[in-house]
User: What shape does this take?
Amino acid sequence: MSYKVQIEETRKCSECGSEHLIRDYERGELGCGDCGVVISEQIIDQGPEWRAFDSAQNEQRARTGAPMNMMIHDKGLSTEIGWKNKDSYGKSIPTRNRAQMYRLRKWQRRIRISNATERNLAFALSEMERVSSGIGLPRNVRESAAVVYRGAVNKNLIRGRSIEGVVAASIYAGCRQCNVPRTLDEISAASRVNRKEIGRTYRFMARELQLKLMPTSPQDYLSRFCSELKLSGDTQSATLKILKEADERELISGRGPTGVAAAAIYIASILTGERRTQREVADVAGVTEVTIRNRYKELSAKLGIDVEI
Assistant: This one.
C-alpha cells in the first residue's frame, strides 16, 4: 500500500455509505474512493510506523528537526555553514572550492540578519545569554525572558531606551514569571545597568505588555539563601514555619521579602544550633545588618520566640 495514498477502513462515507475511504497525504484530504466525496480536509499526516532499534536508526528515521529556540533571533530555524572545510560526509573540501565556501559563509551571515529588528534581537539575545549565565538562571527562565523581550520589540517599546536596560528588565520579568526570584541588585550587578533604570523599565513593560505577575514572597528566596549559607534541611523547615506563622499574623505585608527571609533564617539558625552571623546572612540576602536586626526583633517579639544572642 502506498504511503501517499492509504485506504481508510474504519469509517464510512456519509453520502454513499461506502467503506472504501482514501487518505491522500499530498492534498491532506480524506475522501471516498467510490463517489469521490471529500469527507475531511487538512488531516494530520501520521506517517508510517517506523521502528528503531538503536539511537542511530532513531536519528536517521526521524522526520522532525530541532525545536524552536527563543534564545536565537531566528528561533534556530535557519541553516548555518560551519567553519570547518569539510563536507557532510566528513571529507575535506578541495582547495579550489574553499574560496567559494568562504563567500557562502559570508553571505550566510549577512542573510541571517537582514533588517534592523533582527540585528536588535541578535545583539539583545546574546546580551541576555551573558547576563543569565552570570547569575545562573535555568533555561526556562531564559526563554521566558526572551519571549518578554520579543513582545517589547513587536510593540515598539524599545525606542528611546537602552537595549541593556530592556534586556535586564525582561530577565527580571522572566524570573518573576517562573518563580525563580532574583533581586534588582543581582541583575544590576550582572548587567551593568542602574537598579533604578531596571525598575523603571520593568514597570513600563509590565504595564504595556499587561504582564500579570504576583509579588514575590519571602518563601521564594528561602531555598537559595539556605543553600548559599550551607544550612541543613531542619533549619530550612524551621525558617519556613516561622515565615508561615508570620504570614498568618500579617507581619510580612509592606516589608521587603528579602529582609524578612533573611531575618527568619537568622532566627532559625540560632534555634537549630547552626548559628550564622548577621553579616553572613546580610551578604547572601543583599540587605544590610540593620534591616536584619529590625526584622528579627519584630518577628521574635510578635511571634513570642526567645532568641539568645
Notes: The radius of gyration is 29 Å. DSSP finds twelve helices and four strands in the chain. The first strand starts at residue 5 and ends at 8.
